[in-house]
Design brief:
Layout: H1 3-23, E1 24-32, H2 47-53, E2 61-70, E3 75-79, H3 88-115
Antiparallel strand pairs: 1-2, 2-3
Length: about 120
């Protein structure tokens, strides 16, 4: 593969990741040892990476709630067994989802205004 082909592939991948990032929303509420979600470069693990690699038998974290929202508003929600609507963790997760939706909409509105 030529150097130009390699660069083009990287550009296409970056565009694809950006589009996916703008068209989906993932909120994960976890509890446990924070060291588990910090990579060697002191950055946090991406939510998709966390879910892919999560093993409840060996993990020192616990997924309390997870929400995935697609652009067309298809939603997948997960709550750990026993989590109730009146629990603080549930409420905080719902607030994070709503806050993230509002922030996403603000970014999209900004882009729309710039493109006009």
């Amino acid at each position: 593969m030529s150097e130009l082909s390699t660069k083009f592939e990287k550009i296409v991948k970056a565009i694809d990741e950006t589009i996916t990032d703008f068209t989906t929303l993932d909120v994960i509420t976890i509890s446990g040892d924070i060291k588990t979600i910090i990579k060697d470069d002191n950055k946090f693990i991406q939510p998709v990476e966390l879910i892919k690699n999560y093993d409840p038998k060996t993990s020192t974290i616990r997924v309390e709630a997870f929400t995935h929202v697609d652009l067309d508003q298809d939603v997948i929600q997960f709550y750990r067994d026993g989590l109730k609507e009146e629990d603080l963790t549930y409420k905080l997760h719902q607030q994070a989802v709503e806050s993230s939706k509002a922030a996403r909409q603000a970014v999209l509105n900004f882009i729309k205004e710039v493109v006009k």
